[in-house]
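Before going further, learn to read the protein records used in this course. The integers have meaning only within a learned vocabulary of local backbone shapes. The record below shows the convention in full.
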Amino acid sequence: MVYHPSQLVNLMLAKQLFRQLLISITILIPFVFAGAIFAGAADEELNADLIKAAFSGNLPEVERLLGKGADVNAKRDNGITALMGASIEGHREIVVLLLAKGADVGATVNMYGRNGTTACDFASQADHQEIVRLLVNAGAFHEERAETVRAERGGSSPDTNQPGRRSRRD
């Protein structure tokens, strides 16, 4: 194939541009991945700050962090969540906010020699009965509440799938 001189110039320019593009991509790729890593670190920092704010009762900070994208169900390394922190410290308004934002009332952590300690257990142990009621109303299981339900049902189980459950025909 024979090229006209102007075509050769265009071909050489295209080849040069392609090389520069490859070099640019090669240089930029590590920065793109580093940005993703730093974004993950920023998320972890937001989540850690959310848990701290929930423990300390700082409602405006909890609202701000949730607004910035902190994960309402984030856990510390030991498994503690913001809902657990607010529950054990008795911060009712923060518990209400976290529940409204979708906090998992069933999240558990292994503490106090028990497997499966929940925010409701923490609130109960700290004698924050209003918070216990909020959490139970949001769907949390609480053994004392389950006993009350059993008694109200004449000894039947609060779980409709368990054999002790009475039907309306009984």
Remarks:
- The two ends are 94 Å apart (CA to CA).
- The chain has one domain: 5-139.
